[in-house]
Amino acid sequence: MKKISFLGLDNAGKTSIITVITKRFGFEEEISKLMPTRKIARDSFKFLGVEFIRMDFGGQLQYREEYLKNPTKYISGTDLLFYVIDAQDYDRYVETIDYLDRVLLFLKEEQDYPPMCILFHKFDPQLTKEKVINQRILTIKQALTRYSNDFDIFFFETSIYDIKSIMDAFSSGLSLLFEKMEMVSKLFAEMSKNYNSIMIALFDAKGLTIGEYYRPHLHLMEKMRIYNKYLDAQKKIIAENRTLLEFSDKFENGDKYSGLVEVLTFGNLEFYLLFIIEEDEQNLENTVEILNKIESAKPQMENIILQLIQ
Ligand SMILES: Nc1nc2c(ncn2[C@@H]2O[C@H](COP(=O)(O)OP(=O)(O)OP(=O)(O)O)[C@@H](O)[C@H]2O)c(=O)[nH]1
Ligand SMILES: [Mg+2]
Question: Of the candidates 95, 67, 61, which has an alpha carbon nearest to the alpha carbon of residue 81?
């Protein structure tokens, strides 16, 4: 059993993030009704056959004080830590870094060094190009490099308005606990050379990323569009009890793409393979051919998955 802790100030968005991860579709209403978490909320899930317990540490001041008064009871034994910062709330940057400092100080004293994912959350899509917020986030990142000798720290920008950003941050965190996971992305990068693909990805049944490759410089909006298309495809696959679904769509600039989602089953575990290529309007048969070719890469992929499942 591994322990994942979500820490951060009250109102940072921890429970919202966990809600997005567990629900993936139709979470808006639930998030709009969230109340501050009282003490610690726990849930559990399985990933690649491993049992995880997820702890959502309510961030109101009285709780923070209690955790820090009794850190061995609350904070010790964390295998992976997500620290959530409300990136829009500049007034509380000092307060949140102070809390993080105190948590890290305790862990250091204990010589307990879990990998650490720091989420600059509420980095909503319309803010991604704004100078001020980017500058402020950068300043915090620079300040936190003082911990990089002791801790493995990874930064993410996330928003509930970009589901993919949250799934990526969470999956990347998990991947730190599974050494072999990076083999999947490496294979996809390799495969992409043969297929001129826009994206190749493998998800578990709950939507966590096992590995993925994106064509470089793919625009955020295009990524979000593909991911939403994928979510629709997965819903349809489940509703219609399918194992394969092909679709096509176009980007804002009019470029067309073809996609395929295939269900791969290992024992009682299901995985979803997503494959997206540019649509060749002059030669539609070519597209079909490439989609067929992916079949030939499957044995290698299955081999890796088998090594990953514990
Ligand atoms: N704009 C924006 N608002 C968000 C985002 N995520 C969460 N919120 C809002 O932030 C508020 C607080 O979210 P919670 O998830 O309850 O915060 P928390 O960190 O769990 O707070 P505590 O339980 O008190 O520690 C809610 O009103 C959410 O709607 C986001 O990505 N963007
Ligand atoms: Mg909460």
Answer: 67
First CA to last CA distance, the chain: 12
Residue 88 in tokens:
């829009």
- Say yes or no: 252 and 159 in one domain: no
* Pocket of ligand 1 contains residue 15 by CB under 6 Å: yes
Which domain range does residue 97 map to?
A: 2-177
In a shared domain, residues 164 and 78: yes
Q: Using only C-alpha atoms, what is the Rg of the chain? A: 21
- 68 and 114 inside one domain: yes
Task: Per-residue pLDDT tens, the chain, 310 aa: give them.
Answer: 999 999 999 999 999 999 999 998 889 999 999 999 999 999 999 999 999 999 999 999 999 999 999 999 999 999 999 999 999 999 999 999 999 999 999 999 999 999 999 999 999 999 999 999 999 999 999 999 999 999 999 999 999 999 999 999 999 999 999 988 989 999 999 888 887 789 999 999 999 999 999 998 888 888 888 999 999 999 999 999 999 998 888 888 888 888 889 999 988 889 999 999 888 777 667 667 777 777 788 888 888 888 888 6
Minimal-distance CA residue to ligand 1 atom 8: 13
Same domain, 184 and 140: no
Shared domain check, 144 and 201: no
Ligand 1 near 71 CB (within 6 A): no
Q: Are residues 94 and 184 in the same domain?
A: no
My answer on whether 154 and 192 are in the same domain is no
SS3 percent helix, strand, coil of the chain, rounded to 5, is 45, 25, 25
pTM value is 0.93
Classified as helix, coil or strand, 3 is strand
Contact 60 CB / ligand 1 (< 6 Å): yes
